[in-house]
TrEMBL record:
Its main location: membrane. This is MFS transporter. The lineage of its organism: Bacteria, Bacillati, Actinomycetota, Actinomycetes, Kitasatosporales. CDD domains: MFS_MosC_like (cd17393). The chain crosses the membrane at residues 31-50, 62-79, 85-108, 120-140, 152-172, 267-288, 294-318, 330-351. It is found in: Membrane. The keyword Membrane applies. It comes from Streptomyces rhizosphaericus. It is a multi-pass membrane protein. Keywords: Membrane, Transmembrane, Transmembrane helix. InterPro entries: MFS, MFS_trans_sf, MFS_Transporter.
Length: 398
């Protein structure tokens, strides 16, 4: 599983870090580029929703084995075409399959954590961060040596596709046999999905985790899209120094996830999530008030250490909340990954342009700190929950 997370991190980084090269290759205008970029997460959300229904008929491991090579080949196609319509098709395939990949990959991670009986999700997402660092580094090499995109992508995809296929032979779905009977129940006017063992997936119960997921990705997209501009335009750093914060953020994300599972085992998920939200909120505050570029980079360092725990623990909490229907819960929760990604960058850009970028940083800070309100939703589910018993009040959004 860790290999799958690593491959996905590398592939995604190889796409997003070479967007300027894709724009130049296809002659896409600055006005048209945001439409292409927005289409990918929108289609990924569609892919995630489709996966919820697909895994009723096949196991997530099989879905993952099929879609991960397609994602890699879609990356190669995006970098190898010559006309805009070819790029549009490649990115459409990439978006749909990356949504299915993210959903099925986290479904497997959640089921494996339940089988192990201890926190391991942060380690999987740490492998994703490591893959992202590797992919971004390779993209830098390609840019430094001015390699054409097909020359950069082809040998990497030629390696990553067989690696993913070989690793897929050992995917194991550790979950109960609850695929056979699905129906829709509208008890109390609220649509829920009922599986054979009586477990229901209620969006009201899942909503706190969905909000945390969206808040985390609003924070993440703020760093990835605005950290360089913030250092250069607001804190008056050099162009070279402005490229450093995102790399520092990725490294601290990897470090935090490498040791985060130990923290969850010792202190519990609720404490780790609260600490992560406080660190991330403090990081945004430092960035907003920073008098110099170096202080700003310290803020981005805190952001990486804080935000890194939220997403893996949110997936894990969904699995605990709906142990008999964790696949459906993860697929629905995964949609808010893309919601946060779509909202974050435009939100900060609009506020920065209309107001100023220091004040704009306070908005993702406030949203991340709201995670503390929902931290109880990360607590262990009471014994007996998941077999039709009353829903615990810790997941109620009031």
């Amino acid at each position: 599983m860790a290999i799958s997370f690593f491959v996905q991190g590398a592939i995604f980084a190889l796409l997003v870090t070479r967007i300027p090269a894709l724009q130049d290759r296809y002659g896409i205008s600055d006005g048209l580029l945001p439409l292409f970029l927005a289409a990918v997460p929108i289609l990924a959300g569609v892919g995630s929703v489709s996966t919820e229904h697909l895994v009723k008929r096949m196991r997530p491991g099989l879905v993952l084995r099929v879609v991960q090579p397609i994602v890699s080949l879609a990356l190669l196609s995006a970098g190898s075409g010559t006309t805009v319509w070819q790029l549009a098709v490649a990115l459409a395939v990439f978006g749909l399959t990356v949504g299915a990949l993210d959903a099925s990959m986290n479904m497997l991670g959640v089921s494996l954590q339940r089988a192990y009986g201890r926190s391991i999700m942060l380690g999987f997402h740490g492998a994703y961060s490591l893959g992202g660092i590797a992919g971004a580094s390779l993209a830098w090499v390609g840019a430094h040596w001015d390699l054409p995109l097909p020359t950069l992508y082809a040998p990497l995809v030629a390696v990553l596709v067989p690696v993913a296929l070989i690793a897929g032979r050992w995917y194991v779905d550790h979950r109960g046999d609850h695929r056979g009977e699905h129906r829709v129940d509208h008890r109390g006017g609220e649509p829920t999905e009922v599986v054979r063992d009586g477990t229901t997936v209620s969006m009201r119960a899942l909503l706190p985790l969905c909000l945390v997921m969206a808040f985390a990705y609003i924070g993440d997209s703020t760093v990835s899209n605005w950290s360089a501009k913030y250092l250069e335009d607001v804190l008056h750093s050099s162009e070279q120094l402005a490229t450093v914060p995102y790399n520092v953020y990725m490294v601290t994300t990897l470090l935090g996830r490498s040791f985060g599972d130990l923290g969850v085992r010792r202190f519990g998920a609720v404490t780790v999530v609260r600490a992560g939200a406080l660190l991330a909120g403090g990081g945004f505050a430092v960035v907003a008030a920073a008098p110099s570029a170096w202080v700003g980079m310290a803020g981005f360092t805190l952001l990486g250490l804080g935000l890194c725990v939220l997403v893996p623990q949110t997936f894990a909490a969904a699995g605990r909340l709906f142990p008999g229907a964790s696949d459906a819960a993860v697929a629905r929760l995964n949609i808010f990954n893309y919601v946060g990604f779509l909202i974050g960058s435009p939100l900060v850009g609009a506020l920065g342009g209309a107001w100023n970028y220091r004040a704009a940083m306070l908005v993702p800070m406030a949203l991340v700190l709201m995670t503390i309100r929902y931290a109880r939703s990360f607590s262990p589910v009471p014994a007996g929950y998941g077999d039709g018993h009353e829903r615990p009040r810790t997941v109620d959004v009031g």
